[in-house]
Amino acid sequence: MVEISASMVMQLRKMSGQGMMDCKKALQEAGGDIDGAMEILRKKGLATLAKRAARETSEGVVVSWSSSDGKTAGLATLCCETDFVAKSDDFIRAADFIRDCIEKCEGDCGPSAILETDVGGTKGSDIITETVSKTGEKIEVGDFARYKLDGPGLISTYIHFNGKVGTMVEIEASDEKVAGADAVKQAAADIAMHITATKPMALDKEGIDGQTIEREKAIFAEQVKNKPANIVEKIVEGKMKKFYAENCLLEQQFVKDDSKTVAQVVSESAKKAGGEAKITRFVRFEVG
User: Do 269 and 187 meet the contact criterion of CB atoms below 8 Å apart?
Assistant: First the structure.
């Protein structure tokens, strides 16, 4: 049997980030070959991931990245099983790598786009596997979206203080001067925070699926079924109007000034800069 020296163990530990005993066992199994031991540790991570595939990942963080010009941004969730692991150095390093992946990613949505992204010769999937091996927990990219603006406008992101809720909102403007105005930038930042709190279902009522609309109408109709048909119709219409106002971002009352809708806040901020602006899309991710 090849003698495994302390220096070999330390070298593998430095390369892999794994524990001393895991490194020693891998080296013994690989007959002292460092590359072979690294492959053994990687397989250990894949095995752990497969074994824990059915586990719930209700802890973790939302990760965001934005370009310096505000034209490109991305949002992703990195999830794990326990709060203990979510706060560990290994998990935090993985989250930092996922942030780099968001910047380099060529896809615009879905976890697989992140997992296939290569940063400095390492893929997102490699980092997940390594972190699983180190922590012994199931870890996964839960959600991912990346926006890119080709015309005038800006993209704003917001991560709640607990790190578990994040939003991204895209605003198109009539020209770059309007997009770069402080009032518009502030409105974008405020609305990103607003989305975190209010959980809108869609940008407007056209974005709410038909099944949800029909279900709500049926519930409202059932509540007043003993009234005359023409009265029921009017009541349902009124309740649906309220439903849209509560669940469609553009119609929601702005959390910092409920005398205005979100759409009005954006429009007014653009007018101050001498132009026009509108929200075109948004996303809200939450861990847990």
Answer: yes
